[in-house]
Every structure is written in structure tokens, then in C-alpha cells.
Amino acid sequence: DAKTTQPTSMDCAEGRAANLPCNHSTISGNEYVYWYRQIHSQGPQYIIHGLKNNETNEMASLIITEDRKSSTLILPHATLRDTAVYYCIVRVWGTGANNLFFGTGTRLTVIP
Amino acid sequence: DAGITQSPRHKVTETGTPVTLRCHQTENHRYMYWYRQDPGHGLRLIHYSYGVKDTDKGEVSDGYSVSRSKTEDFLLTLESATSSQTSVYFCAISEAGTSGGDTQYFGPGTRLTVL
Question: B48 — contact with chain A (CB < 8 Å)?
Fold first, then answer.
């Protein structure tokens, strides 16, 4: 699975959009981009995933560049409860036996 | 949230004692996983299961065994606990191959301390 690069930490004002970038320049054509987050002491929480098209769900939007070498997770109206470590992961779809490589992620702090 | 529970949520034990952690799901998902999380290492896969009685090793399986006698339960056993196994253990489930894909959903975790 391709490796990803994320900033170590970011701050965002409450109510504003949080834009979390991820570089995955060695991504393969059959690898999906997944985003998870982990709030302190809790289990990782799935947020969203995509292949090449932009995706949106009730939690966030995922914007993937046309060359697929980078992506951005957007939390449209950040709240204090969104303070967490966010992980960008790339892996092949449907390979349930493969573990997820979480790396170090981005620590997002939402400021009142 | 996916129906995943882990028990116990916290445990303190002594070196050399056996320990069993339980993961229970109500989603009828085929795959189940055990991870450990340690500072500086992220999440590391210990063992996983792809069906009842079908299991395989992950990257840090030494010192651990697993069993899955029912779809809903996946047990992780430390035969003789060591201090290096002090960690937070997470169970995860997924259903590969369906329209939902193999997105993994995680349980709340078990904090294990081996003295």
C-alpha cells in the first residue's frame, strides 16, 4: 500500500471549514483513499473514502486531485467535538485481510 | 456506529498470567481483526479472521493466539502476558466484497496493563 504524508498538526476556528491535506504521490490505480479519525482514547472512526471522484457524506467531503497524488478532507463546519487525530490511508479495495496503516496522522484542534 | 463491543474495557494483570480479550459484533460481518496501539507505532495488526475457524497472523502476532468459534465473537489470548504487551487493543470488523466494501469499523478498545 502507498504511503501518505500529512501535516503533524493544524488548528481550525469553531464553525469554520477544516481542510486537511494528504499527499499520496505513489498511489496505484487500484488504491482507494480512506480517512479515519481518532478522538482521544476512543477507537478509530471511519469518515469517508474515494477512488478518483469527489465524495461527500454526512460527516465530510473528500476532494481528490485529478492525478490522484493528493487529497483533502473537508469538515464543513468544525465543532469542538471534531478535535481528533485524522488519518489518511491508501489501500486496495476489497482486500479485507490487509491491515490499515495509520501512520501518525494530523492532530486537528478546533479552537472556540 | 457499528455494533462492536469489547470486554473487558480495562484490565491490569501480572506478568506470566494468561489473559483473554473478547470482541463481539452484531453486524454479521465476515472479517474481524485485532490491533494494538502504542505510542510511536500507530495501529499494528496482530491477527485477523476471515470466517469461523479461519484465522491468520498479522505483523505482530508473536505471543498472541486467537479463536473464532462463532461469527460474532473473536477472542484474543495472551498465553503468558509480558510487560511488552501493555497496550490498547482494538477490535475491528469489515465485510469485504459487498457494496459497503471492506471499510473497517472499530470497537471502543481495551486498555491492558501488564505489571
Answer: yes
* Residue A1: predicted pLDDT: 59
Ranges of residues in chain A whose predicted pLDDT is under 50 = none
In Å, what is the CA distance from B9 to each residue of A43, A101, B68, B76, B91? 12, 24, 20, 14, 12
Find residues 12-41 of chain B whose CB sits inside 8 Å of chain A. Answer: 30-31, 33, 35
Of A44, A34, A13, whose CA–CA distance to A111 is shortest? A13
Q: In this predicted model, what pLDDT tens digit does every residue of B73-99 receive, in sequence order?
A: 999 999 999 999 999 999 999 886 444
Closest-CA distance, B82 to chain A, in angstroms, reads 22
Asked if A99 lies within 8 A of B106 by C-beta distance, the reply is no
What torsion, rounded to 10 degrees, do the Cα atoms A16, A10, A40, B45 define?
A: 120
The per-residue pLDDT for range B36-75, each reduced to its tens digit, is: 999 877 788 899 998 899 998 988 999 999 999 999 999 9
Look at the block and give the residue holding cell 501488564. B114
Q: How far is B22 from chain A (nearest CA, A)?
A: 15
